[in-house]
Each structure stands twice: as structure tokens, then as C-alpha cells.
Task: structure prediction
Amino acid sequence: MSTTLELMAVEADSCTLCGLAADRSSVVFGAGHPEADLMFVGEGPGAEENRLGIPFVGRSGKLLDRLLDEELGIDRGSCYITNVVKCRPPDNRDPRPDEIAACRPYLERQILAVNPSVVVTLGNFSSRLLLETDTGITKLRGQAYPYGDRQLVPTFHPAAALRGGANVLAGMRSDLAQAKMLMGQA
Ligand code: URA
Result:
């Protein structure tokens, strides 16, 4: 990790800015290459992530790893992976607006520190937050959006592909192919 990310992770480790601090086992800050050209932003840690302190290590993570390999030819060590909220919402409920707002500065600082040219948002929460919209992921996805001097590619959350089957998975594959193309252009 870069010094900046390390310092932020240490800061987040003792964070009590929202109620999620009360029930967490780990703060799941982020993982991967500290200067990655590609960054993924999910929703929030699940049970396995909370246990291990690493993002996307459960079933959704396994699918993400497979798509990274098959569509981008990379593994998770070549990109940076984080979430909108860094602590697990109890019983995997949706993160609440106050929790998202409290955690937002961490995400924004992570994006500045890693400085990727392409940010892929996984699912509604990260896509709506970073694009500052109420539009849902099904409508948003399929195109790239300018995000400062970066490109943002919204796609489905891997959990939706695990639930939703072939069409969702095909959409994710095509969005990741677009992210790969955009990285090539940067
Ligand atoms: N789902 C997420 O959004 N993030 C994780 O880290 C794991 C599952």
C-alpha cells in the first residue's frame, strides 16, 4: 500500500463516524495495487469480508475474480477494490444514507490516492453515489461517464449476476470489456 493509503487505513480502523462501527469485526478498507489504473467500488462488506478484513472474498468476490481473469486478463492484485461503506451492515442489510455519507470521504480520498483512469462501480449504491443520481443500475449501465478526469463504468453487482443469471452476467462482461478498452486509451 502507498503511505497515503496505509495512513487512511489506520485512520479508518478506529473510525466511529457511524453506527456500523458497533458490530464490525474488521474495517474492510480496500485491497489491491496502490497505484492501480482500474478501481472497483462495491457496496459494503459481507460476513466473510467482515471476518477477514478483505473486500470481495465471498461468493460475489469469487465471481469478480473470475470476470477479472476472463474479461481483463488480470488478477485482483493488479487493480484496487473497495466499497462504499467499509464496515458490514448487520444481516447484510442495505447501507443507510447516513452511513454512506459518513464513509464517503474515505472513498473519495482513496480514489485520489490510487488515481485510477477507470472506476468501475458495482451495483446501485456505488453507481448512484459517484454519479450523484437516483437512476438505477439497469438504466445507467452500458456506457461510460466522465468522472473528473477519469472514466466511470457502472455495472451490475456480482451478487445480481449470481441471482439473476445469464443476461446480467453478459451485461457485466460487456461493461468490463468497455472498461478494458477505456484503460487502453488513457
Ligand atoms: N459485496 C460487496 O459489495 N462488497 C464486498 O466486499 C463483498 C460483497
In short: The mean pLDDT is 96. The chain has one domain: 3-182. The CA atoms of residues 66 and 75 lie 9 Å apart. The beta strands are 31-32, 38-42, 80-83, 118-122, 145-147, 150-155.
